[in-house]
Amino acid sequence: MESCRVNCLYVVLSAYLFQADYDHLMGPISINEWLLSLGLPQYIGIFMETGWDEVQYLGSLTEQSLLDMKITEIEHRERILHSVRDLQHR
After folding, report:
1. What are the backbone angles phi and psi of residue 70, rounded to the nearest 5°?
2. Other residues' Cβ atoms within 10 Å of the Cβ of residue 83
3. Taking the CA of residue 69 as centre, how many other CA atoms within 13 Å lie in the half-sphere pointing to its CB?
4. Is residue 16, in this structure, part of any structural domain at all?
5. Whole-angstrom Cα distance, residue 68 to residue 60?
6. CA 42, 47, 48, 54 torsion-angle sign
7. For residue 75, what is the domain's CATH number?
8. 5 within domain boundaries
9. Which pTM does this prediction carry?
10. Band of the pLDDT at 75, cuts 50, 70, 90?
11. If phi over 0 gives left and psi between -120 and 50 gives alpha, with beta otherwise, what is residue 21?
């Protein structure tokens, strides 16, 4: 009986973890989507205004770029730069 519970749990967890929706593997497709996923929608306008309007170019984003955009919250800059590094490894 215990073996059946373990196997059933494994099947349920596997189905959940390996679901057919692979969108999360592709990463964000727009700056809006990316900033929303980071919980930083307040920066969408400034990214667009300063020409950072394509996710594919974020690899050249630096801390100085963020400071030039007047993103003064260090936690926000760190979150953005960490995400950029993650995007580069996909």
Report:
1. 70, 30
2. 19
3. 23
4. no
5. 14
6. negative
7. 1.10.150.50
8. no
9. 0.69
10. very high
11. beta
